[in-house]
Automatic annotation (TrEMBL):
It comes from the Bacteria. It comes from Polycladomyces abyssicola. This is DUF2283 domain-containing protein.
Amino acid sequence: MKAQVTYDDYAGMGYIYFTPPTPGCVVKTVELEVNSDLMLDFDRNGRLVGIELGGKTSDRLKEWAGRNHIFEKHFHHDKGYFFRFMMTDLPHTLQYAVVEHVVFHFKDDRYNDFIGIDLYDIDQYSESFLVGN
């Protein structure tokens, strides 16, 4: 299985896969409105399949490179089950909802310091790929 998190030292870019890599599955790439270091890849059904991280944002991802099953399954009393990836634990994070069922977490109020993501539409994702169950 290819790593869920990759990092290219030469390019200074990292990638987080939310679905198993499939050639040609990405049909649209969108820059995250509040942070141009994050490029969001979508498939033909509008599902977020991965994120490319560049600039200073990618530096933190280096230590995660080569890992799989980086998400944990959580429960929210209003929203139900969701998958969460967090690079650091903080008592409070600034949240930014970019597309329905996807919430990005940032450490700062300028959305510069990306630290994680929540995927709320868990039926669109493979728990065994994300979590490892």
